[in-house]
From TrEMBL:
Transmembrane intervals: none
Record keywords, A-Z: ATP-binding, Ligase, Nucleotide-binding, Protein biosynthesis
PROSITE patterns membership: AMIDASES
Keyword Oxidoreductase part of the UniProt annotation: no
The enzyme's E.C. designation: 6.3.5.7
Protein's UniProt name: Glutamyl-tRNA(Gln) amidotransferase subunit A
Family: Belongs to the amidase family. GatA subfamily.
GO biological process, one term: translation
ATP-binding found in the keyword field: yes
An MF annotation (GO) of this entry: ATP binding
Described function: Allows the formation of correctly charged Gln-tRNA(Gln) through the transamidation of misacylated Glu-tRNA(Gln) in organisms which lack glutaminyl-tRNA synthetase. The reaction takes place in the presence of glutamine and ATP through an activated gamma-phospho-Glu-tRNA(Gln). Hydrolyzes indole-3-acetamide (IAM) into indole-3-acetic acid (IAA).
Domain Amidase: 1-445
Length: 453
């Protein structure tokens, strides 16, 4: 823990942490030592980790990287972090992310962007670590956290993992409790870890998951032994290769990485089968209706009365307006406006209802592939390697949204997805491959991911 705290002090230029909690970390580490001395201790005893600032931590500032939450320090602990502390993990601090987890580059944070520890060969240009869990990915990659918590609504665990050469898994919807995690789009949000290896990710997810009476969408099913699944191998598995993911303009290096992944799995005894997921092309537009719709509703609670920032006004309505105008950033306001529009009378049927119908079709695509005997699906994690800070999306937000093209389908269908580092582009930047599993079958993803990493 002390070594990590020292390294954090030297890596502040990355802006990965928004709050360092050294006293708490050392107290937790001492308590771990005491337990270990007595021959006790959990599966993550004494392991120092970072916590995405979207998770509520008792008595510790939790802001979702938004100005509107101000100095909000909750009186409760999220179930996922409570589970981690019970397993013996030590909290190093709170980690930077996109504001309310809305973004793909960590540039929408009220605390400023995170700088990736990676650079293109022969260039000093600063790159994004991906988002929204950009701080989690950068911290793990820069070795200032052994692992970190993250959340994924449309790719926010898997895309930053791919950009930084780390492993990120979004489990099946319902595997982790959402209780105490700041809500973005409740039907899509899931917690998961970013870690250095598939085995680390398995150990983290094991501790984070499990039934929780405080979240009715949290599944009441036991969590299997993920760590044991890591070394299970892939012999006899059928891996689906969806033809719709071969999108126009896909860089040759992504295409060849995808082929390389198939070759590795074949060599390890798996069989590749071409499959079709015909509604893939509608996933991104449908996601950018469903997610903002739910966000606009979830974010209605930030009214200047209950949490964080309050900007005084002439009367209560004026206070609401001023607080929200000042407290929310540009991207968050854009989502609230889109969401309110697609839910409003007259537009609901044309946009929101249609997007929900598309969601059902996307889910059915996957169900058909799995009922035909496919065990997991292999795709690229992202359409490119990391890009420069300030390079994308300032003129046209859709340019940024296109980053999520391979990841959003998985959230729309509620399935588990893992991103594993698989190679590098021509300029030395990490690239990731994604594996998508059957509902509640994270084990196959760990076994398959282990062969690729
Ligand atoms: N990039 C996507 C968005 O901005 C996904 C974010 C996420 O998964 N939290 O909505």
């Amino acid at each position: 823990t002390q070594a990590h705290l020292d390294a954090m002090g030297e890596a502040r230029a990355l802006n990965a942490y928004v709050l360092e909690t050294p006293e708490k970390a050392l107290a937790m580490a001492d308590a771990s030592d005491a337990r270990l001395a007595k021959g006790e201790g959990g599966p993550l005893e004494g392991l120092p980790i970072g916590v995405k600032d979207l998770f509520c931590t008792e008595g510790v500032r939790s802001t979702a990287c938004s100005k509107i939450l101000g100095e909000f320090a909750p009186r409760y602990e999220s179930t996922v972090t409570a589970n981690l502390w019970r397993a013996g993990a030590v909290m190093l601090g709170k980690i930077n992310c996109d504001e309310f987890a809305m973004g793909s580059s960590n540039e929408t944070s009220a605390f400023g962007p995170v700088v990736s520890p990676w650079r293109r060969d022969g260039s000093d240009a600063k790159l994004v670590p991906g988002g929204s869990s950009g701080g989690s990915a950068a911290a793990v990659s820069a070795r200032i956290a052994l692992a970190a918590t993250a959340t994924d609504t449309g790719g926010s665990i898997r895309q930053p993992a791919a950009f930084t050469g780390t492993v990120g898994i979004k489990p099946t919807y319902g595997r982790c409790s959402r209780w105490g995690i700041v809500a973005f789009a409740s039907s899509l949000d899931q917690a998961g870890p970013i870690a250095k290896t598939v085995e680390d990710a398995a150990m983290m997810l094991q501790a984070m998951s499990g039934p929780d009476a405080k979240d009715t969408t949290c599944a009441d099913i036991p969590v299997p032994d993920y760590r044991a699944a890591v070394s299970r191998g892939v012999k006899g598995l059928k891996i689906g290769i969806p033809k719709e993911y071969r999108v126009d303009g896909m860089p040759a290096e992504i295409e060849s990485l995808w082929q390389q992944g198939q070759d590795w799995l074949k060599a390890a005894g798996a069989e590749m089968v071409e499959i079709s997921l015909p509604h893939t092309k509608y996933a991104l537009p449908a996601y950018y209706i469903v997610a903002p719709a739910e966000a606009s509703s979830n974010l209605a609670r930030y009214d200047g009365v209950r949490y964080g920032l309050r900007v005084p006004g002439r009367d209560i309505v004026d206070m609401y307006e001023k607080t929200r105008a000042e407290g929310f950033g540009r991207e968050v306001k854009r989502r609230v406006m889109i969401g309110t529009y697609v839910l409003s009378a007259g537009y609901y049927d044309a946009y929101y209802l249609r997007a929900q119908k598309i969601r059902t079709l996307i889910k059915r695509d996957f169900e058909e592939a799995y009922s035909a005997g496919v065990d997991a699906i292999l795709t690229p994690a992202t359409p490119s390697a990391a890009f420069g800070i300030g390079e994308k999306g300032s003129g046209d937000p859709v340019e940024m949204y296109l980053n999520d093209i391979f990841t959003v389908t998985v959230n729309m269908a509620g399935l588990p997805g893992i991103s594993v580092p698989a190679g590098f582009d021509a300029q030395g930047l990490p690239l990731g491959l994604q594996l998508i599993g059957r509902a509640f079958d994270e084990e196959t993803l760990f076994a398959t991911g282990r062969v690729i990493e």
